[in-house]
């Protein structure tokens, strides 16, 4: 193998090349391919969450390594989607109320902080303004998109609320109503979507894990909405990944004050419960997770790579920053084992010195007819940022753990 790991020397999951880590290797490979820079494959501006996630990973990598190229890449990416006056380019359509547009706003907040350039504040304000009129369920949760009425998705919690929290932390840190509003997003999503042992659908061969269904429809209009709480039928690995990443990132990015106390306790306790469930849900042989967690081993199901990367990041970061109590060591042990599987199975060295990342499913949505067959029939992708960026995040945490 071109980039053998150090497993034989007892140091697992670090690439052998001197001075290289998986985090830099994966990031440099993405940069070489021109990914996540605010432009699409035809070189036109694109405002999309997966670019925001890569830029977040590059920021952490810049803070770790001091390599200015990462910072410059974030700047270039943000500038690619801002007009001269700081407004967001016209491919952003606020009237669609898509939370998926928002994550590149993290880079605006970051660059405003480091440069004080007002253009970044203008862009961040424009995204924040979307929330003012974002349609909500009767209980106050943001709709995932204007086109998905009354629906709360785990994905949207990450796309919307991480920015909401970072914006509030930067400009309105004592705004109690904003912090409570963020807490409420999590409360609503969790109460509608946590799997209950008492209402497992035996006809659907559903396995009880105590995790969160992909989403819910408060109006019960969708054909997939369960009769009780309107939730979708299956637990999709990446959706749960977005949710737990949102929790650790919001805990890290929000101040510890009286105003944030309720929000922090709410999401921290959810993280503790979900992390225990994730440890139990890991496949006992491989140590990683099924694409459709509720249907382990069923024909067509497979070990998907974006969800695993997200769980590794959330578990290790949660323990490192003290949000999770890892009393029996199982959170770290589970994350390490999964990380070793990931580097051995999903990293593919290329002859030009870059690496490819495999087995990330391209999409999972809640269209009419949502069911098990839908998820397993979505294709996988090589170097999909929805898995590759979380792999950089997972690698940064693994490297912090082992001191690399
Ligand atoms: C810094 O990052 C850039 C961009 O990926 C990479 O090309 C370069 O080799 C890195 N520099 C060092 C000293 O590692
Ligand atoms: C890039 O974006 C432009 C403008 O939105 C669009 O017309 C074009 O089809 C996109 N290209 C790709 C490859 O997605
Ligand atoms: C900012 O610039 C864009 C693009 O040139 C333009 O459409 C918009 O009207 C400007 N907005 C303001 C507030 O000047
Ligand atoms: C940048 O963030 C730090 C930490 O939150 C804060 O103390 C500082 O005032 C911010 N600077 C600017 C220019 O926003
Ligand atoms: C505080 O947050 C609420 C909820 O997001 C918002 O409507 C309000 O404008 C904010 N208040 C201030 C003073 O920023
Ligand atoms: C449940 O499992 C049984 C036995 O494997 C299978 O025949 C049936 O089609 C499954 N039901 C659904 C809804 O997938
Ligand atoms: C249980 O699953 C079956 C098969 O997918 C479905 O037809 C049925 O509506 C579900 N029942 C409930 C109560 O959700
Ligand atoms: C990527 O994963 C798929 C599915 O597991 C596999 O069929 C394919 O061979 C892998 N690609 C490479 C280049 O290893």
Summarize the structure.
The protein has 13 helices and 6 strands. The chain is mainly alpha-helical and 404 residues long.
3D architecture notes:
GO terms for molecular function: hydrolase activity, acting on glycosyl bonds. This is Six-hairpin glycosidase. Keywords: Glycosidase, Hydrolase, Signal. Helix content is 50%, strand content 4%. The chain is mainly α. The strands form 3 sheets. Strands 1-2 form a two-stranded antiparallel ribbon. A two-stranded antiparallel ribbon has the order 3-4. It has a two-stranded antiparallel ribbon with strand order 5-6. Strand 3 and strand 4 form a beta hairpin. The longest helix is centred in the last third of the chain and has 24 residues. The protein starts with 21 loop residues before the first helix and ends with a helix. The structure holds 2-acetamido-2-deoxy-beta-D-glucopyranose (8 copies). One 2-acetamido-2-deoxy-beta-D-glucopyranose binds next to helix 7.
